[in-house]
């Protein structure tokens, strides 16, 4: 018998004064996690990174593919750093935020290294409607530890107040 | 806080109920007017986690209660000759021959990428880099896979969907691979079974897991 799932665990908004969103004390009761974020910086075009359990070290790898607004093919990878999201939109009205979903597989399974699949529609810094990158990425956190916290940061720059972040839990029966 | 999404039921005013039950509408059709035949929300239907190696993984007798399907999981194949992510195949309703599948794949690997279109039709949906090879020293590594299949039970249209997959490659300093594809299945039959097969090696190893979910709009 099918069982309802896809639970909203937590949500947060940008407040215009901080550039870090942290989901902590993540319940260890689901199979996978999904982060949905629609974000924009308060100024400039800072880089955005996502890390797990406060690990800012070299335990990450990724590859991103996709196309730029002009049709340029993207195919880049890193072997020791988290994926750097460099198009998150800026605080120019009317707003044009960047939308991303990240699926984190078997996040509490201590027998597997953690895999993330991500899809994004990323607005360019000048926030024009046509200026959207269509990107997909696979990311890896080389750790078998259960994920208990997720840190989303753009460093010293603050998230604009229109930024939204949601964490969902998906449970397989 | 935990909130279940998409569980709202439409409650019609009692005046409408009274009006319909005194009219010419029969009870079954009237019920159909009040209660959407599809389930609303995101549901876990079935999960397979292999306790021993298996050449295939199949979801059979898929219920028709939903609008769309989603499958997600971690895959590893018993193959060690190569050093990169391993391709897998996805077939619907046991159809693994002919040319009723189409695929447009965009994937990055090594120093290059592919942007390939199988518009002439193939015998399967090929999931590039969907599984991790069973390399020594990479016991905890799996390939990640997620797909959505839209209107899987509709008999008035061919079926469409997309997938995204990713795996680590134990070569070239642990470069990562990722694939994103749209696909079509040229059949008007409802999808009642989905089978996964490894393209290389003897099959999936123990620990491989796939979960099937149903997504319902609540509409008819």
| Radius of gyration of chain A from CA coordinates | 16 Å
* Main sheet: strand order of chain A: 2-12-4-8-9-10-6-7
Helix content of chain A: under 10%
How would you state the average pLDDT of chain A, rounded?
90
Indicate the percent of residues in helices of chain B: under 10%
Instruction: Give the strand tally of chain B.
Output: 13
Strand proportion of chain A, as a percent range, falls in over 45%
How are helices and strands ordered from N to C of chain B?
EHHEEEEEEEEEEEE
Structural class of the helix and strand makeup of chain B? mainly beta
Strand content of chain B: over 45%
Structural shape of chain B: globular
Helical element count of chain B?
Answer: 2
Give descriptors for this structure.
heterodimer, A: 173 residues, mainly beta, 45% strand, globular, B: 220 residues, 7% helix, disordered N terminus
Structure write-up:
The complex is a heterodimer of chains A (173) and B (220). Chain A is built from no helices and 12 strands. Chain A has 173 residues and is mainly beta. Chain A has an 8-stranded antiparallel β-sheet with strand order 2-12-4-8-9-10-6-7, with no helix packed on it. A 3-stranded antiparallel β-sheet of chain A has the order 3-11-5, with no helix packed on it. In chain B, strand 10 (159-168) and strand 11 form a beta hairpin. By secondary structure, chain B is mainly beta. Chain B has helices at residues 14-21, 27-34, and strands spanning 3-4, 40-49, 56-59, 68-77, 86-92, 101-109, 112-117, 125-133, 143-150, 159-168, 176-185, 194-198, 209-217. Classes of the chains: A mainly beta (173), B mainly beta (220). At the A-B interface, strand 1, strand 2, strand 6, strand 7 and strand 9 of A face strand 1, strand 2, strand 4, strand 6 and strand 7 of B.
């Amino acid at each position: 018998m099918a069982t309802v799932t896809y639970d909203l665990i937590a949500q947060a908004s940008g407040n215009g004064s901080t550039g870090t969103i942290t989901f902590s004390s993540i319940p260890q009761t689901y199979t996978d996690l999904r982060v949905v974020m629609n974000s924009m910086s308060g100024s400039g075009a800072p880089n955005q990174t996502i890390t797990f359990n406060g690990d800012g070290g070299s335990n990450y790898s990724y590859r991103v593919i996709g196309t730029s607004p002009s049709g340029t093919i993207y195919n880049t990878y890193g072997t020791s750093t988290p994926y750097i999201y460099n198009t998150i939109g800026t605080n120019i009205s009317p707003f044009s935020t960047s939308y991303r979903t990240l699926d984190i597989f078997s996040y509490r399974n201590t027998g597997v290294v953690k895999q993330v699949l991500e899809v994004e529609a990323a607005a360019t810094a000048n926030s024009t409607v046509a200026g959207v990158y269509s990107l997909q990425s696979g990311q890896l956190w080389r750790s078998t530890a259960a994920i208990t916290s997720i840190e989303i940061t753009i460093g010293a720059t603050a998230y604009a107040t229109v930024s939204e972040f949601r964490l969902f839990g998906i449970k397989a029966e | 806080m935990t909130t279940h999404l998409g569980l709202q039921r439409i409650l019609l005013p009692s005046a409408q109920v009274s009006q319909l039950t005194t009219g010419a509408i029969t009870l079954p059709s009237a019920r159909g007017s009040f209660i959407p035949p599809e389930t609303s929300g995101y549901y876990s239907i079935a999960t397979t986690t292999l306790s021993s190696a298996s050449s295939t993984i199949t979801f059979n007798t898929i219920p028709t209660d939903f609008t769309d399907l989603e499958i997600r999981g971690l895959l590893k194949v018993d193959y060690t000759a190569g050093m990169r992510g391993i391709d897998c195949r996805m077939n619907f309703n046991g159809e693994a021959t002919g040319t009723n599948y189409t695929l447009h794949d965009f994937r990055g690997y090594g120093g290059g990428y592919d942007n390939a279109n199988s518009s002439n039709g193939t015998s399967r949906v090929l999931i590039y880099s969907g599984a991790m090879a069973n390399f020594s020293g990479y016991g905890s590594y799996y390939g990640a896979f997620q797909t959505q299949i839209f209107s899987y039970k509709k008999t008035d249209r061919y079926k469409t969907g997309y997938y995204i997959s990713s795996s680590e490659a134990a070569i070239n300093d642990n470069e990562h691979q990722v694939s994103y594809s749209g696909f079509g299945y040229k059949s008007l039959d409802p999808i009642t079974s989905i089978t996964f097969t490894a393209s290389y090696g003897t099959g999936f190893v123990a620990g491989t897991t796939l979960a099937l979910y149903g997504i319902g709009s609540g509409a008819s």
